[in-house]
Amino acid sequence: MSFHFRYREGFLPAFPKLEGRLVKHHLFPQAADLARWFKAQGIKVHDWTMVIPEHVHWRIHSGSARGGLWNQAWREFRDTNPTRRYTQEELLAKAFELAFRFDVVGPIIPYGRSLVPPAGPQLFAQ
Fold first, then answer.
1. Is 67 inside any structural domain?
2. How many domains does the chain have?
3. In terms of domain of life, where is this protein from (predicted)?
4. Can you give the pLDDT at residue 64?
5. 96: buried, middle or exposed (CB in 10 Å: 19+, 13-18, 0-12)?
6. What is the mean pLDDT of residues 95-124?
7. Per residue in 63-90, pLDDT tens?
8. Which residues contact 124 (CB under 8 A, 6 or more apart)?
9. How far is CA 117 from the centre of its chain?
């Protein structure tokens, strides 16, 4: 779990220690059916990737065909109300809910950007 605090109030973000090979996990899946749906909702899937350990990425995308448990969770969400138009805030809230459920956490950066060490102090949980 990550904790996001406001720097101006004197708090620092805390992330678990990211070890091993790191990969960028799309919070909004790239699978063709889901990518089309996200685009129609106004979401650019490559703008929202979370840097996580590769073994965690394998875990959340395993369990079934077509993208594993992560993608299945998004399909179930989409299919509960397929004609509804969601706001970006609602979809981000769902993405973070899924991140909590699947126990994934890391910095969020657009897919095309390289991961650079954060400027300033950071706290890491052990």
1. yes
2. 1
3. Bacteria
4. 73
5. middle
6. 78
7. 777 889 999 999 999 999 999 999 999 9
8. 14, 15, 16, 17
9. 19
